Amino acid sequence: MGEEVVEVERVTLKTIAERVGVSRMTVSNAFSRPDQLSEDLRTRILAAADELGYAGPDPAARALARGRTGVIGMVLTNSPRDAFTDDVAVGFVRAVAGSLADAGYSLVLLHGSEKNGVVPARDIAMDGAIVYSCAPSASAFAALRERRLPIVSVEGSPSPGVPDIGIDNASGAYQAAKHLVDLGHRRIAIVTDALDADNTPSSSGSLATTSTTIAGRLEGWMRALEESDIVPILVGTPALTIDDVLRERIDRMLDDPPTAVLAFSDLAALEVMERAKSRGIRVPEQLSVVGFDDNPLAARVSPALTTVRQDIDAKGDAAAQTLLALLREDEATPVQRLPTELVVRDSTARPASS
Amino acid sequence: MGEEVVEVERVTLKTIAERVGVSRMTVSNAFSRPDQLSEDLRTRILAAADELGYAGPDPAARALARGRTGVIGMVLTNSPRDAFTDDVAVGFVRAVAGSLADAGYSLVLLHGSEKNGVVPARDIAMDGAIVYSCAPSASAFAALRERRLPIVSVEGSPSPGVPDIGIDNASGAYQAAKHLVDLGHRRIAIVTDALDADNTPSSSGSLATTSTTIAGRLEGWMRALEESDIVPILVGTPALTIDDVLRERIDRMLDDPPTAVLAFSDLAALEVMERAKSRGIRVPEQLSVVGFDDNPLAARVSPALTTVRQDIDAKGDAAAQTLLALLREDEATPVQRLPTELVVRDSTARPASS
DNA sequence: CTGAAAGCGCTTACAG
DNA sequence: CTGAAAGCGCTTACAG
Q1: Could you list the residue range(s) of the whole structural domain that residue B37 is in?
Q2: Alpha carbon B275 to chain centroid distance?
Q3: Interface residue of A50, A68, A76, A81 to substitute, partner B, most B CBs within 10 Å
Q4: What is the pLDDT of residues B184-204, one digit of tens each?
């Protein structure tokens, strides 16, 4: 007669305890500390749990009681949407996720800005975080610090109490520039982001960049060039990516091209190569191009790109291991600089004139 | 005199309540329901919180009390480490993360297998999950279902109560095969994973694949070929990626090459093109190649690859929106098939003989 | 506009 | 090997 609304009680430790006739505690132990009860009792408890459709201790409740969630946050420069268009960032996320997984942690992607009232760095439960290529002033970074979470920064700026991991940008850039100098180039342009420069010859005096990464690379490029009294032409955009400003300035540079270009990334190098090609400037015969990163694309394009390789897997592993050390309250190395390596391919050659 | 160990009490709602002289509740309201108290009182509370270094309500405690975490899980076929080497999967993660972020949710990457005693699908606190290219039998999938979490599957198999989203593989594959037939090809090979086939001519009868995606594509390819009474040569590997088995079988195929190849992905197509090139088989003059996906690489390689485009951003959005609908307990479309589009570039042409 | 009560589902010592 | 007690830090109705 009539309908019957079946109120499905949620199954919890209590439900199972009552069913088996033990205390909640013992059920908890059956799941979380198997050595605390007899094999036989445990089997009975697990069977009852299974029968009742219990999926295991509720993770949220467990996180509160234990004071740990098993989740590590990753804040990327911009939104994940932007960061995931960059193969280097993707490779890094991949390496970190893999390393953390081996230790039983999962990675949650945190977007920087507030959306719909939530600020992930403030509102998501986690045990620690990795901050990738992000100024200490960034609001997400500040929120994490306020929570006193263990943090590791990657390609960031030094910041008290936060270990920083990154490649040795200066030395990588130095190798790239030295390579061009050794080939005999003297008219060299630097193409970079995070720097507002419109085809101006510059010495290392007044280079204002907002990015530590670019600051390091500029230092290396300039050092190698200054050793040979070369004053490079600077082509840059204030943005943190390749934008139309940079594209336009690259075009302007190609109106009166140098014999070689140092690009801040492989993608920027490809941009230069494509624009040169469309004007009939041949690479490397008329223009040598050196990139940075050793993006998977670098070896595939033609001519294959000379570049500075960084070991992105090593960087991800180092970040993960350092954070795990922090979580164990072990000593963590405050600053780690990973080596780079010049990879000479087909986009560089002696200048035509020499 | 002597040292003093300062026990730093953790700051909670209670600490602040005592400081300001109100109840914990009111402090909670100051953070979570601003309309529940006077502007003035709220300001005083927030000021006290700030002074005490309170970073906001503890997310873990909030998650337990509210019954929601703000986190959505994503389980990828294999480990994130593997999945992130595939541009298509990366694009999908990117689109999902972006869409979820707009709604205030963060994405946590779940590895499939148990590591260090933790099974993320079972042990991580989350509000729902997206399961990407994963058989319903997968253990992670089962764990999620046992928890009765809202789930959306993507490129999976239909499974009761779980909406599935994917492209129309059969129709995309049909377009690709039809394109070759229309160009006049009759000697056509299919190169695919998830199918154990070593250069055997086959009709659609007994094609055993473990992947729904490949099953759909096989159906489309075969339908177009059968319409013209063409029996293709099947080249496949049982693995779910491009492995050495597949490479070796591709080589064997090229010993007596067909005039055209249908590849299950752009990466497989590139593999075929590279191996053909190294033997002096010219693409497209002697061999036409069609890929699948429209990977970012497809337009960059030379010759540019003819392929079947899928809109990966649309797929990610659809997955996110469907899951969000489930969370709101709205009606969710059980099955969504996204359209594909043939993109003709330079890797296909009429066969030499015609 | 403010607060006392009950509860979210689990775990951590600790005593028996 | 088992359980009673206290607590993790918050929020949700509800009453005043």
Answers
A1: 13-57
A2: 28
A3: A81
A4: 999 999 999 999 999 989 876
